[in-house]
Automatic annotation (TrEMBL), chains A, B:
Residues 20-348 form the Aminoacyl-transfer RNA synthetases class-II family profile domain. It holds the Pfam family HGTP_anticodon. It is an enzyme of class 6 (ligase). It comes from the Bacteria. L-histidine binds at residues 85-87, 115, 129, 133, 279, 283-284. Belongs to the class-II aminoacyl-tRNA synthetase family. This is Histidine--tRNA ligase. SUPFAM superfamilies: Class II aaRS ABD-related, Class II aaRS and biotin synthetases. Homodimer.
């Protein structure tokens, strides 16, 4: 077998990196559960027609088929594709199980998703997302839109990563404003303004004229709105100073004030109202969120979402929702790329129990057992080589302690191989310092 | 959108079941880490030619392709398929990263795998496996084969499930014995004996004659070997009483004695030497494991594996390994099917903080925040409805406590809605009984 090579866009972390990823996922999950979100995991596949409901992402879908299933066309009615996000499967799950769920339904979901996009830095074809959503039947209280940044702020601030800033906007502000200045295709205007960071104001003005039929004055007004940014409710005064009046605009301002003020009380500096944030996806209808990681702004948002009123509906029943998604793989990929995260050892073990001779392996097993029963991760040395070699086994993995079972009559000893200190110990009572028990992420 | 329906073979647990699954996975992972196994996660896809190296499973492979990737034939050289187990990807990972890994390399891996088999009870097309493996370069100590059942025994016995019994055998015993009685195709004999449980001894004898060229006496000897079963080293006497002599047979007996005796010291009753266990896969070369769950024996093994010497090799370098895999989805599917597992509530929240009026929501947020900061999962009521309705919100989710923020001047109170007891409390000090903090699985 020749040496295999990586597949572009399908990242694989080293075991040490995977330990860091697990630490990050555990922290995120813990925060989600502290806020009462229940876990959900959906299957990796969805019917292709479900996945293609949102036209613009269809090119990214991976279709699956059984290798020898010749009779089944790959794009037939019953064709399956890998999900490309966790929102579409969640909306499907809610519709499928609405009769069994309690509403409002708060769930989190941490899973891999797949997109056949061109791989580039911070973009993958297989990656992990960590989502929270709240859906209700018929109506969803707007206060849930203010709750999302609290959860995400707590989750991300529990991690050893740079500061984050959540940028919030409200689709109703944009749509109401565009209507208020007389534009008839607010969706087109939204898509044009969404490109502001990429192509700059002059090109956006052109695009507004071309695709949304905006006059020069209208384009200028759209750009003026997009330039408004404030860490508090003062954004509302800036919007009103533009002199546009529309009921949907007022509703959007009121909702966004609530989001910003709730966040300011909970976590000062976490949220900023940034009226250029639009989110490309058509299905958002209220608050939208993006998140920048300080020092990595050029790679785009690491955590995004928004309110959607029309993603799931069945006959006359609607299930409006609000959700947000942390791009865990993207976040870790950026931080691993700059060596911004490290871990104190390469394996979970805190102790290597040395083996005096193969005949004495059972004695070493008993020591390891006694340690494990008290929650101390321990390996037994793979060989009864000279102790120097067994110590190097621990050193190469940065395992801090080596345990030496005593010869007959003599007691056991344990050595801290970093300091060289070696002390008498018994496996039923010895406890490492708390900082040594588990690998430390920093 | 019409109501979606489930896809056969792709199970989805309810949020309550998912909480149980997470509890099970956390326990398994904790045991794996106590034994010093490092975590690894590999991508979901492998090159198709890698997946097809083991001929007999090719029919089960799912191929993936990008929907609009017309130029790429689905079965071309660079075609990708979803992995159907975690052993093949692990062997590939070891070869790809051998220069960066420390050997022996102990890793665990808990991931979904996919097989396009016909779905039936206890069999799925998408399911979770929890694997441990130890690989070394060139040589792997036989004592690692004795370590596997200790880990699995601890992992499975930490779960609220029926008793398990690990059945062990050693390929060298079978192969050495078959050679010792003069059979020239021990692989064929192994495959025939592997069908013993399914087709019975008479049919196995026929098959031995047809496919392995066995005489009546040889077939009888093979069946006599397969009938041997003992919870201790006495199986070795029973084998020797059959009067067959072969060096490989002796080696296998010695190794299996070690496995059984190590297990007996660690966990009496956990392991039994059962010489009919063969495992279908060709790549095993030493100890093999299967695991029965008491009361669910007819559904087959829930945890299997073995030693493999030739799965990963690159030029002159070999990486022999031993591994075992818990079929988590199969295990849970069986237990969910008989309602053998339950959980004390349907969401993680321990407390619902009531909302007196929408204007007072910020006060309720502050209470919830104070509770969360001390690790107590808390939701804020989604509406400021009458308190009776807010209590029913908690009841329907079996959340044990409802918190009532005091009106101005008055203190807060918390109600245990199971007993009806309501007491004065402050969010900075109140603590629920330990048994109420997290959902309890039983």
């Amino acid at each position: 077998m020749s040496k295999p090579t990586p597949i572009s866009g399908f990242p694989e972390w080293t075991p040490s990196q995977r330990m860091i990823e697990q630490y990050v996922l555990d922290r995120i999950r813990n925060t989600f559960e502290l806020y009462g979100f229940a876990p959900l995991e959906t299957r990796a596949v969805e019917p292709l027609d479900q996945l293609l409901r949102k036209g613009e992402t269809s090119k990214e879908v991976y279709v699956i088929r059984r290798l020898h299933d010749d009779e089944q066309g790959p794009a037939g009615d019953d064709a399956l594709g890998l999900h490309f996000d966790l929102t579409v499967p969640f909306a499907r799950y809610v519709l499928e199980n609405a009769g069994k769920l309690q509403f409002p339904f708060r769930r989190y979901q941490i899973q891999k998703v797949w997109r056949g996009e061109r791989p580039q830095e911070g973009r993958y074809r297989e990656f992990v997302q960590a989502d929270i959503d709240i859906v209700d039947r018929d109506n969803l209280g707007a206060h849930h839109e203010a709750e999302m940044p609290l959860v995400i702020g707590d989750a991300l601030r529990s991690l050893p990563i740079p500061e984050v800033r959540i940028q919030v906007n409200n689709r109703k502000i944009c749509e109401g404003f565009y209507r208020g200045i007389g534009l008839t295709d607010p969706e087109a205007a939204l898509r044009a303004v969404d490109k502001l960071d990429k192509i700059g104001p002059a090109k956006v003005a052109e695009l507004l004229a071309q695709t949304a039929g905006a006059s020069e004055a209208q384009a200028k007004a759209c750009l003026a709105l997009a330039e408004i940014s404030a860490p508090d409710a003062s954004f509302a005064d800036a919007v009103r100073a533009l002199g546009v009046s529309d009921p949907m605009l007022d509703e959007g301002i009121e909702e966004l004030v609530r989001v910003v003020e709730t966040a300011a009380e909970h976590s000062p500096g976490l949220c900023v109202a940034d009226l250029r944030i639009a989110r490309g996806l058509d299905y958002y209808t209220g608050t939208v969120y993006e998140t920048q990681l300080r020092g990595y702004e050029r790679y785009g948002s690491i955590c995004s979402g928004g309110r959607y009123d029309n993603l799931a509906s069945s006959g006359a029943v609607r299930f409006p929702g609000v959700g947000i998604s942390i791009g865990v793989t993207r976040l870790l990929g950026l931080l691993f790329g700059t060596d911004a995260l490290s871990i104190s050892r390469d394996v979970p073990a805190c102790v290597v129990v040395a083996v005096t001779s193969e005949e004495q392996r059972a004695a070493s097993n008993r020591v390891a057992d006694a340690l494990r029963r008290r929650g101390i991760p321990a390996e037994v040395s793979p060989s009864a080589a000279k102790f120097g070699k067994q110590i190097r086994y621990a050193e190469r993995r940065r395992i801090p302690y080596v345990w030496f079972p005593g010869a007959e009559g003599a007691g056991d000893e344990v050595k801290d191989i970093r300091s060289g200190d070696q002390v008498a110990a018994t496996a039923d009572t010895w406890t490492p310092p708390a900082a040594d028990l588990k690998p430390l992420v920093s």
